[in-house]
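User: quick one, sequence for these tokens?
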């Protein structure tokens, strides 16, 4: 355990030296503040809840941005050390390979959690100053923030399995971008095309709900954009919320499963890799 903590600490310090924490925090804060102020306009005309506006805006941002940041953080976690020649030196110490993977994973999740918390909190502070309603219902924002970190952790785990199987950083980077494109853009468009072509003849509402669980980004979307009445109505997902009979606890457990399986696979592949 001590070795894993030391590796996580080293990963954390490397993030600071490489300005990852600062850059990601400023990027998330900039987008969050922009969406916060631009998204506040509907509250005056249609009386939408400021909390719903905040959750929809930041959740939509997280779906596109956090997976990309997570993959850029983690795609070279193992193969990068191997190319630099530091992996053999690291493994010469009394440290198990699973401790290397879990230590790097923990450090990178810590970087992403801090950056997300600080970045999104700036938008939360601005919303609290402009709306008492938001301050009264902070728990839903906290759930969105925690699930955003969990979404990032899923893609960090996916980045680790990519890094474990790749032989150079260029290949790992290309695969990581491909994963982002598939889960964030391609899968939903392909599913929409299938649904349009099917016209309800084969795929039932329950089948569509289970198909959404194949994509961690869609699980996150169901949890935040269809999980609460106010957010689902404002995001246009009230129909999906009624069709997908998945509770918040089940959706979070699915995200945890999506995080655990690639991480275990990364440990298994790395333990059999020749250094």
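Assistant:
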């Amino acid at each position: 355990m001590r070795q894993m903590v030391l590796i996580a600490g080293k990963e954390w310090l490397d993030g600071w030296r490489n300005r990852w924490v600062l850059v990601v925090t400023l990027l998330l804060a900039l987008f969050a503040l922009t969406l916060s102020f631009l998204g506040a306009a509907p509250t005056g005309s249609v009386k939408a809840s400021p909390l719903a506006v905040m959750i929809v805006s930041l959740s939509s941002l997280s779906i596109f941005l956090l997976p990309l940041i997570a993959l850029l953080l983690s795609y070279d976690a193992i193969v990068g050390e191997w190319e630099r020649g530091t992996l053999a030196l690291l493994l010469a110490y009394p440290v198990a390979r699973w401790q290397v993977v879990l230590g790097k994973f923990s450090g990178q999740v810590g970087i992403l959690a801090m950056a997300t918390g600080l970045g999104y909190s700036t938008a939360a502070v601005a919303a609290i100053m402009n709306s008492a309603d938001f301050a009264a219902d902070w728990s839903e924002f906290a759930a969105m923030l925690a699930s955003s970190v969990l979404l990032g952790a899923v893609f960090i785990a996916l980045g680790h399995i990519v890094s474990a199987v790749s032989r150079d950083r260029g290949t790992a980077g290309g695969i990581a971008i491909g994963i982002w494109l598939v889960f964030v853009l391609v899968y939903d468009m392909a599913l929409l095309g299938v649904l349009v072509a099917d016209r309800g003849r084969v795929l039932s509402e329950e089948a569509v709900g289970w198909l959404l669980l194949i994509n961690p980004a869609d699980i996150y979307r169901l949890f935040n954009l269809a999980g609460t009445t106010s957010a689902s109505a404002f995001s246009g997902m009230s129909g999906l919320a009624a069709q997908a009979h998945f509770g918040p606890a089940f959706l979070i457990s699915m995200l945890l499963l999506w995080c655990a399986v690639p991480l275990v696979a990364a440990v298994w592949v790395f333990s059999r890799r020749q250094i």
